[in-house]
Design goal:
flat, 201 residues, 40% helix, five-stranded mixed beta barrel, Helicase, Ruva Protein, domain 3, 3 domains, DNA polymerase, domain 1, OB fold (Dihydrolipoamide Acetyltransferase, E2P)
Length: 201
């Protein structure tokens, strides 16, 4: 089974990507909001993958983060939720919002995804609400410490920036969502705060 593919991003399309590795081109379906789309064609990327094998088809589904792959695998364990439905959910909202909706038993938010009705959303919540750890963990997107918002938390630069925004009067959710929208990596705390403030105004 393929856990990840590391290679050159050869093609980007609305429905997925092609990664060239070892002389082969792997066609991979990815969420519409996946971080892999930030890479340019010709750049080297790593895609975490799930291989789905059926009698008449073998498909690859890929994600830019291990946490997204983990969430995908959990979603497809739910009765009536296949790979395409799981991909639709992960395309409809950021990963941390998917986890938060499930943990908060907010089935309505999950129905924003194409093909996900009320009953399916409620089944997802029922079967997975205890699978993502604490609410604190589920509410924090990739790249943050779960202690964002604690005054004495050292954290990384994004977490420190979240603390600074909270000190300015923004809610924890507003701070984290704004910083999650900042795509640049390895910025200073001050630079993260400046970029996040642009998202908030």
């Amino acid at each position: 089974m393929l856990h990840y593919i590391k290679g050159t991003l050869a093609i980007k399309s609305e429905t997925g990507i092609v990664v060239e590795a070892g002389g082969l081109g792997y066609e991979i379906s990815v969420p519409a909001n996946s971080s892999v789309y930030l890479a340019k064609e010709g750049e080297e990327i790593t895609v975490y993958t799930a291989m789905m094998v059926r009698e008449d088809d073998i498909s690859l589904y890929g994600f830019g983060e291990k946490a997204a792959l983990d969430t995908f695998r959990k979603l497809i364990t739910v009765s009536g939720v296949g790979a395409k439905a799981a991909l639709s959910i992960l395309s409809a909202m950021p990963l941390h919002e998917v986890r938060q909706a499930i943990t908060l038993e907010d089935a309505k938010s999950l129905t924003r995804a194409n093909g996900i009705g009320k009953k399916t959303a409620e089944r997802i919540v029922l079967e997975l609400k205890d699978k993502f750890g604490t609410l604190e963990d589920a509410s924090v997107p990739e790249g943050f410490s779960a202690s964002a918002g604690a005054a004495d938390s050292p954290g990384d630069n994004r977490t420190e920036a979240a603390n600074a925004l909270i000190a300015l009067g923004y809610t924890r959710g507003e701070a984290i969502n704004a910083l999650a929208a900042v795509k640049e990596q390895d910025l200073t705390v001050e630079e993260y705060v400046k970029q996040a403030l642009k998202k908030l105004f």
